[in-house]
Amino acid sequence: MSESTAPVLRAEGLVKTHYGEGAPAHAVRGVDLSVARGEFVAITGPSGAGKSTLLHLLGGLQRPDKGSIWLDGECTDGYDEARWAVERRRRIGIVFQFFNLVSDLSVADNVELPALLAGVPPKQARAEREALLEELGLTGKERSIPGELSGGEQQRVALARALVNHPPLLLADEPAGSLDSRGTREVMRLLSRFHQRGQTIVLVTHDARLASAADRVISFFDGRIVDDAALDGGPSSGKGISGVLELKD
């Protein structure tokens, strides 16, 4: 399978168990998943279902106990921490619920940092940063530090940082989880805009409004995919979307 026809992301048999005090927590139980180029996939389900763990596995932030992940048709089984770090700069942008911005760096430096780490010339990194901040309505905030911004503004900075290297895949983990309704609408609008331009997105959310922006919704419950449905009325697995919305309350 050539890179152009391979799924941007494919996972087979992913298993992840967390061990700590008390009984082991089986966060991900044998998950198979394929995401095509240009798809916007929302993974939704109740708190504790294992959604964020799944996303962290897909981004190389955690390692599966069993199973394999492919990026553009390339198996990642042999990737070490350093290689995954390179892939997260080059092929995977990640947005988190709590922004994860570097608190003592300016907005401009936060956005440019992944580009500079990836070897992009400073002039080009600056140009990419300026274009993204303008598009995201953050012109004039370049010299601000994150603590001076609202939650919605910080999440837009985080989105700019995730997209500065034009990664084929954007992973978003509850990106509106700490925002008010206005911030949630803004994140939804921005994700939809980038998706319309061909950005592949995998979004983890418990919010039905955000999930409705996707063209495919996966219901996740107790570490497993229990439904996989297209939002245009064509179910991917035959169950439709009724169960998806029930899991979001």
Question: What does this 3D model show about the protein?
Answer:
- By secondary structure, this protein is of the alpha/beta class.
- It folds into 2 domains: about 170 residues, 3-Layer(aba) Sandwich (Rossmann fold); about 70 residues, no CATH class.
- About 35% of the residues lie in helices and about 25% in strands.
- The protein is built from 8 helices and 10 strands.
- The strands form 2 sheets. A 6-stranded mixed β-sheet has the order 6-7-8-3-9-10.
- A hairpin with a 2-residue loop joins strand 4 and strand 5.
- It is globular and about 45 Å long.
Keywords:
25% strand, alpha/beta, Rossmann fold, 33% helix, 249 residues, 8 helices, 4-stranded antiparallel sheet, 2 domains
Q: Helix count? A: 8
CATH homologous superfamily placement of the largest domain: P-loop containing nucleotide triphosphate hydrolases
Helix content percent band: 25-40%
Structural class: alpha/beta
pLDDT averaged over residues: 87
- Helix/strand order: EEEHEEHEHHHEHEHEEH
The CATH topology of the largest domain corresponds to Rossmann fold
Q: Spatial order of the strands in the main sheet? A: 6-7-8-3-9-10
Number of strands: 10
Distance between the termini: 40 Å
CATH architecture annotation of the largest domain: 3-Layer(aba) Sandwich
Instruction: Pick out the low-confidence regions.
Output: 233-249
Q: Number of folding domains? A: 2
How much of the sequence lies in strands comes to: 15-25%
- The level 1 CATH classification of the largest domain is Alpha Beta
Radius of gyration: 18 Å
The largest β sheet comes out as: 6 strands, mixed
